[in-house]
Design goal:
Strand content: 15-25%
Largest sheet: 7 strands, parallel
Distance between the termini: 57 Å
Radius of gyration: 21 Å
Strand order of the largest sheet: 5-4-2-6-7-8-20
Length: about 475
């Protein structure tokens, strides 16, 4: 008998669009935990680089680049009612595939809301049009009031995705420290009220990657521990953050959106050119990149009390990412070349040396106990023991995507949903065996800690958690 739990059987067909590091790392987990015959799985990839992995799994791989003018023709023969469309590709429109899956009566999941090529970096588009905020608003507009719509789960990888469930777990931990009989909120309003009552002013998605390869990065090469194309795409988008009700002034380069939830703002500069101060328990204080991510918007929106630009309560939410050393060097060179892509790209996997980890969690700050980090400290050595074809980084993504797939199959008629709207306990139950140590840690650190005023700075010392203090100028 297998040591791995089979959560459910899926009688339909599964179509996986995209077969890079996430698709290849996720397929073995699907076959472990979801009862589906290999003959019922089809992979569509832009090239044949993953053919050996597909053949080892016994699944069919078709090489096609999906485009607006051909995706229906390619998908029609292999996707229908009761099937599952899993989108882990870049440069394939999530909006198009969500609408298509619904028209075919199929379930859907992606790990980010992707546009067609050019949607992230077309200089003729206004900055606001290149934001995740705009993509999210378009995706949510696909919601229809009629019942029994096939479930389509948006943006459910590690972040966005898993971190939304970390936020709920962290809120409950904070509440238990002051009120041991606190009950779990059952609705969105209850979670927002809990965050407000606890005094959470800001939430950092605080991630630090210390994985390293023995084959170091070369000039003209972009190296990363997950999708190079995905990282480059989001790095050159405008920096975005959920904008909190406690913030006293808009950043000098900050812009508001003219429609939608108004839960977020964007800066007139790229995420890879914007650094912020944050903290993780393993590494301590660090300067991370405020790369745009969907969770910065969805979490802030979900935890809002009131609406529009001036709610009665909303936390500031943003990513703070320190990638692995070689990705950091790659990003510096990419920025210096004015966002021109390197000639070569390499994803670190089998060549990663022992000992590194991806420390991914959420830092809830500004409350009575200052700051609390909750998350995963998954090391590369444990990741290799747990699942094939994965680094620590990709396994955190793949475990969360697997969990959301299972939830979608169990809840097949929920329409378009975001991570914040699904059962966090069910997701964490499925993910936990693949996350390594999952810990919570309090800290007295603030963005003002140790700043000795060696140079003039415009600080707000009355409130350490103002974004102006967090941002690195």
């Amino acid at each position: 008998m297998s040591e791995h739990r089979l959560y459910l059987d899926f009688p339909g067909r599964l179509v996986i669009v995209g077969f890079g590091c996430i698709g290849q790392g996720l397929l073995p987990l699907i076959q472990r935990h979801i009862g589906i015959r290999p003959a019922m799985i089809t992979v569509i990839a832009g090239d044949a680089a993953g053919r050996a992995v597909a053949e080892q799994a016994g699944v069919r791989l078709l090489t096609h680049l999906l485009r607006p003018d051909n995706f229906r023709q390619i998908l029609d023969p292999i996707l229908g009612r009761g099937d599952f469309l899993l989108n882990v590709a870049v440069d394939v429109s999530s909006l198009a595939l969500i609408d298509y899956a619904r028209s075919r009566g199929a379930l859907y999941l992606d790990t980010s809301i992707e546009p067609w090529p050019g949607g992230y970096d077309d200089p003729t588009l206004a900055l606001a049009a290149r934001t995740n905020y705009a993509l999210r608003e378009q995706a949510l507009a696909l919601r229809v009031p009629s019942p029994e719509q096939p479930t389509a789960v948006l943006t459910h990888g590690a972040n966005p995705g898993l971190v939304s469930h970390f936020v709920k777990r962290a809120l409950l931990d904070l509440a238990a420290a002051t009120d041991p009989v606190v009950s779990i909120p059952q609705q969105r309003a209850g979670w927002a009220e809990l965050a407000r009552r606890l005094g959470v002013r800001t939430i950092h998605i605080a991630e630090r990657d210390t994985q390293v390869s023995g084959l170091r990065r070369q000039a003209g090469e972009f190296v990363n521990t997950w999708s190079v194309d995905g990282f480059i795409s989001e790095a050159q988008q405008p920096c975005e953050l959920g904008w909190g009700s406690h913030e006293r002034s808009l950043p000098r380069d900050g812009c508001r959106h003219g429609s939608g939830s108004r839960a977020a703002i964007y800066l007139q500069r790229a995420g890879c050119a914007t650094r912020v101060r944050s903290w993780t328990p393993g590494g301590g204080p660090f300067h991370g990149f405020a790369i745009t991510h969907g969770e910065s918007i969805s979490i802030a929106d979900y935890l809002s009390i009131g609406s529009g630009e001036a709610p009665s309560y909303r936390p500031t939410v943003h990513y703070a990412y320190q990638p692995c050393d070689d990705a950091l060097l790659s990003l510096h060179e990419f920025s210096a070349r004015n966002y021109r892509r390197d000639e070569r790209k390499r994803i670190l996997l089998d060549d990663i040396l022992p000992g590194g980890m991806d420390e991914l969690g959420v830092l809830l700050a500004g409350h009575a106990r200052n700051a609390y980090w909750f998350g995963s400290q998954l090391g590369i050595d444990e990741a290799r023991r747990l699942a094939p074809h994965n680094s620590a980084t990709t396994l955190q993504v793949c475990a969360a995507a697997l969990a959301a797939m299972i939830w979608a199959i169990e809840n097949p008629a929920r329409g378009v949903v975001e991570p914040d709207e699904i059962d966090f306990e069910r997701v964490l139950q499925i993910c936990m065996p693949y996350l390594g140590p999952v810990i919570g840690a309090y800290t007295g650190w603030t963005p003002l800690h140790g700043r000795r005023h060696l140079f003039p700075e415009e600080l707000d010392e009355s409130d350490p958690w103002q974004f102006r203090n967090v941002r690195v100028d």
